[in-house]
Amino acid sequence: QVQLVESGGGLVPAGGSLRLSCVASGRTFSIYTMGWFRQAPGKEREFVAVISRSAGITNYADSVKGRFTISRDNAKNTMYLQMNSLKPEDTAVYYCAADYRGRSPNTAVGVTDYDYWGQGTQVTVSP
Question: Percent of the chain having pLDDT more than 70?
Answer without folding.
Answer: 100
